[in-house]
Design goal:
There is one protein chain. A five-stranded mixed sheet has the order 2-9-5-4-3, with helices on one face. Strands 1-7-8-6 form a four-stranded antiparallel sheet, covered by helices on one side. Helix 1 (4-18) packs across helix 6. It is built from six helices and eleven strands. It is of the alpha+beta class. The protein has two domains: 4-131, N-terminal domain of MutM-like DNA repair proteins (Alpha-Beta Barrel); 143-266, Helicase, Ruva Protein, domain 3.
Length: 280
Amino acid sequence: MPELPEVETIVGDLAPLLTGARIIRVQVWDPRLVRFPGAEDFNRRLTGRIIRTMTRRGKYVVVELDQGLTWLVHLRMTGRLLTRLEPGERHQRAQFTLDNGVNLSYCDLRRFGDMWAFWPGEEEHLGGFQTLGPEPLGEEYNPDWLLAAFAGRKAAVKALLLNQSIVAGLGNIYADEALFLAGIHPARSGCSLTAEECGTLAAAVKTVIAGAIAGRGTTFRDYRSGLGTVGNYQQRLQVYGRAGEPCFSCGETLERMRIGGRTSVFCPRCQLQVRQAGEI
């Protein structure tokens, strides 16, 4: 799934090509793509609108159009926004033709992606977008925020990091990498982390996310930038996708476990599981 660094890269590639252009034709071949207001109304709303800005919030692409309309895109598992289609592309779900000659295509193998087109006052239809937590590179995301967010929560810290109301845009890849960098076991309960550990973890998240943005994201299979290129950060991954291989830091064999329905990879030596309160 494209996480914050991948979406940031896509937006960075596409914004200079799209900003200021007018959408002159909208073609949606998979109506399930449109969550609100329905495929036909979605087409009508976007056609003729001018793209004012293109930004990112969490894992969402946020396109501000003229007259106050907002176009929201979530790529989910395998969604891609491209200006250049690969030969033989079979998963194109929508296309947006602009008056500057750019054709923006939305492709999605698994068809989980979502789009919305909403006016001010229609935010009730946006679901999780309305409850996003702070951005990991923003000032609001800090040790005090994490300590307060984890207080009283017995859920595993890995699961809490994936909670988009606690930190926006963090996903499985970068949660594993941040926990490794911080030396914190993914199964630790959130409430067991000390203020010092929350500080270490907050800093680790920022470091990992900034590095992944600089590396233009991580590509294993599906992810491509807005220009169709692959990411580079997979070459720097310390634990994610490496279960059974030796830890780069200590040589211990990396282990895998399921937390909250998601696979977590960690080093049992570098990320010790401390005893939780009440355990024997």
